[in-house]
# Entry
Amino acid sequence: MIIMHSSDLKVALFPMEIKWDCKDANLDELKKSLVSLHNETDLLILPETFSTGFPIGKDKEEVRNFAEKNTGATIDLIKDLAKQYHIAICGSFIANSGGSLYNRAFFIEPSGEEYFEDKRHLFTMAGEDKIFSHGYNRMNIRFRGWNLSVVICYDIRFPVWCRNINNEYDALIVMSNWPAVRVGAWKTLLPARAIENESYVCAVNCKGVDNKNYEYDGSSAVYDFKGREVSVKPENSQLIYATLSRERLDQFRAKFPAWKDADIFKLV
# Structure
């Protein structure tokens, strides 16, 4: 279905240079970066596991040392910053729930409203499935007149998981630690998800070098419903910005309603 709205959504991506295993340094970097945030921003998107880096090359007990509950230092800071800057903040962190570990997505509104869901597809080639338990639900949020859905990194290789049925979301948010050696796939999959789902895709990747010396180049962008990049990076800025146009999205979905012919299915 198409639901008409009037307001646009202003998004900022932070392709953060993560210092692996240095939580305090990464949290400090986030605080510093927001000093220059554009004051019209509605939503800030951070990379996957932004406070620690993706735990490649570690066993489960090593990773447990970095894990937090939903009430730990990482989420407490995110709540403080969301309130201070009057924005929503989205990303993922390493979570501990009942002794099990998760790569957990969060979406925190300036009001303090919070949403959490766990990564569905665990990257077996790096042993992520040996560390984390997988999630069962895709995060769906209603924020400032927009329906948003959130997935994490490897999830975008699985179009059934990302499928937008009856325009249930207007923008797909993707946060990632996607190595430069495979960045060609990243840059292909993102516009493909935008085109097939007739939605915006807002994708942020990190920078840095991990524990196995894999490099991350920070490739981050916003794509529109035709797969065209619509984001810009101001000179001397760490952040990338885009305005998601409600009018243009609704007009395109009405003019070219491929969503009406999509297959209806359920995951089992």
Q: What stands out?
A: DSSP finds seven helices and 13 strands in the chain.
